[in-house]
Amino acid sequence: MRLSRAFLPTLKETPAEAQIVSHRLMLRAGLIRQTAAGIYAWLPMGWRVLRNVTQIVREEQDRAGAQEVLMPTIQSAELWRQSGRYDDYGEEMLRIKDRGDREILYGPTNEEMITDIFKSYARSYRDLPRNLYHIQWKFRDERRPRFGVMRGREFLMKDAYSFDLTAEAAQHSYRQMFVAYLRTFARMGLKAIPMQADTGPIGGNLSHEFIILAETGESQVFLHKDLLQFDALAEAPNYNADLKPITDFWLSRYAATDEKHDVAAWDAIPEADRVSARGIEVGHIFYFGTKYTAAMGVSVPGPDGANVTPEMGSYGIGVSRLVAALIEANHDEAGIIWPDAVAPWKAAILNLKQGDAATDAMCEAMLAGLPDQAVYDDRAERAGVKFADADLLGFPWQAIIGPRGAAAGRVELKRRATGERHELSVEDALARIRA
Ligand code: 5CA
Asked: What is the mean pLDDT of the chain?
């Protein structure tokens, strides 16, 4: 991608309306554009990051055995009357009427719709267990949309729904998603800590939020300090095996978004081991048994012929919120520092003397060696402007090329995160970036 032709609209000024660093940087780096309160257009760079985040989420859901579907954003009120939530959900639900005066809504979540779909096809216990997920836009008419895509009204969510024969099997499905979440966030370089949580309007009695610690987070969190030294789960586990040994490490140590969850457990932690901080909720998982299947009349013959009402859980990840959370966790004074796993482009190629034949040729060679992975700053701008923009946009690598280096066959390769610099040949620089 040549910057001279790219649509990467950066802002010099810090936008006054943005209160937290991720919102400021997303606007300044031209990732998003607000089109109405809490509603955003994703511009080329933001969209590439969102796609990368989505893809990691998808791969880890697939690995854990969930199957991807795509349900519509628009739902019928009728479906929500069956569960009783049409009246309960309140003002956050965007209610619409179609031309035939029928009540429809923009989905804030999909428990009812997936339960209805499952009901249409499930014939016996052999259709269990199943876990279906989709990655789709949601709308919640938040009273106070703020912090950009962190708390939007329209936002992208991954939501998965598990169906099981027994409560015990449902707990296994819950643990599968629990572990998949640990892996998903670890792959993005994030420390997300699972914490006991309220179930709110989704319902049920077992629930964990996955929280990234950040000063600007909206949730107050309380945890045992052991949980901060966590294992990144580099190896994918066998999802069919017993997952208790993995999950019990987390479940046995106190971590909650509200100290009142378990006052005794919190009090039992030695004072020196208690951590209280702020955090961002990037995921939320729920086990709610037969709440929706019973209300919507789902039942299948079990192995002994007696009818069974399937047990359900639902599992959400705030995919668009994650982009903001990633920036909260990875930035400095100069701008964004993308983790390699989600970077929109791996490298920026900075041409310090546009028009110098050797410099231009070396830049072109770098660009050709990184198809769809590099942004080439070929603008007629001063070097200082190019350095500042590359730092702001946060590509993991900067290949800095000027006449002196080009004459010596040398690229100056800078690592954005550490500021480390190395003088390398084009081949070696390419190998380093590709690794
Ligand atoms: N149906 C369940 C799980 S699939 C559900 O809706 N859970 S949720 O309400 O907790 O939302 C899941 C995730 O979406 C949250 O953890 C959060 O990361 C994200 N999210 C929720 N509301 C917003 C919002 N207004 N803006 C951005 N992300 C949001």
From this structure: 95
* Ligand 1 centroid, distance to 145 Cα (angstroms): 13
Atom of ligand 1 nearest to the CA of 152: 26
* pLDDT for the residue 412: 98
The answer, as to whether pTM is greater than 0.90, is yes
With a 6 Å cutoff on the Cβ, whether 283 touches ligand 1 is: yes
What is the 318 CA–ligand 1 centroid distance (Å)? 5
Cα separation, 184 vs 180, in Å, equals 6
Domain spans of the chain, in order of start: 3-336, 347-434
Considering the chain, what percentage of its residues have pLDDT values greater than 90? 86
- Whether domain 347-434 has CATH 3.40.50.800: yes
Q: Give nearest CA residue, ligand 1 atom 13.
A: 318
The single-letter code of the amino acid at 338 is: W
Neighbours of 147 (CB within 10 A): 23
Helix (H, G, I), strand (E, B) or coil at 130: strand
Residue nearest to atom 12 of ligand 1 (CA): 316
* Residue 241 near residue 230 (C-beta atoms within 8 A): no
CB of 386 within 6 A of ligand 1: the answer is no
Q: Is the CB of 208 under 6 A from ligand 1?
A: no
Confidence bin at 203 (pLDDT 50/70/90): low
Architecture of the domain defined by 3-336: 2-Layer Sandwich (3.30)
For 206, counting Cβ atoms within 10 Å of its Cβ (0-12 exposed, 13-18 middle, 19+ buried), the class is middle
**Fold match, 3-336 / 347-434:** no
Task: Provide long-range contacts, Cβ within 8 A and 24+ apart, for 423-428.
Answer: 426/362, 426/365, 426/366, 426/369
- Atom 6 of ligand 1, nearest CA residue: 109
